[in-house]
Amino acid sequence: MSEGHIPAAQPGNGPGSCRWAFSAGWIPPESTGHEPAFTSRDVLCLLNTDTGEACVEATVHHSDRDPVGPYRISVAAGRVKHVRLNDLIDPEAVPLGEPYGLVLVSDVPVVAQLAHLDTRDGQRSGALLNGVPGD
């Protein structure tokens, strides 16, 4: 390898994991400002560096009832995809104002993070949550 040369990623050899878990989900029930730009939300951020499409299944875990899912999300090869959890409605909408956990299972390794935006009370705050890889 010559100096400064970075080898190309190989299939199945990219960063990430096939299983992820997030335990700190919570979508604020109120928002301030114009929709959809200022809607309070959680956003699942997925990076697929593989050469094939990633098929990700998400299951939402609740504090007072059985898990719901799978929610199916595809991420094209070599792409990133951001999905608002507020927009997931099939098999049912992710509830607002309730704690939830999220488990992801992918057929190829992906990198997953959860971004949180809270616009209640005319303020804006954000957080980026790293998931726990399960491989």
Brief description of this entry?
This is Sensory rhodopsin transducer. With 135 residues, this protein is mainly beta. The protein has no helices and eight strands.
Describe the structure.
The chain is mainly beta. The chain has a domain at 35-112: TM1070-like (Hypothetical Protein Tm1070, Chain: A, Sandwich), CATH 2.60.290. Helix content is 0%, strand content 51%. The chain contains no helices and eight strands. Strands 1, 2, 3, 4, 5, 6, 7 and 8 form an eight-stranded antiparallel beta sheet that branches. Strand 6 and strand 7 (125-130) form a beta hairpin.
Which whole number gives the mean pLDDT? 89
Full CATH superfamily name of the domain at 35-112: TM1070-like
- What is the straight-line distance between the termini? 30 Å
User: What composes the largest sheet?
Assistant: 8 strands, antiparallel
CATH architecture of the domain at 35-112: Sandwich
Number of strands: 8
CATH class call of the domain at 35-112: Mainly Beta
What share of residues is helical?
under 10%
Number of helices, counting only DSSP H or I runs of 4 residues or more: 0
Q: What is the succession of H and E elements? A: EEEEEEEE
Q: Looking at the structure, what is the overall shape?
A: globular
Kindly estimate the percentage of residues that lie in beta strands according to DSSP.
Answer: over 45%
- Would you tell me the structural class of the helices and strands? mainly beta
Stretches with pLDDT under 50, minimum 5 residues: none
What integer value in Å does the Rg equal?
Answer: 16 Å
User: Under CATH, the topology of the domain at 35-112 is which?
Assistant: Hypothetical Protein Tm1070, Chain: A
Protein name: Sensory rhodopsin transducer
InterPro entries: ASRT, TM1070-like_sf
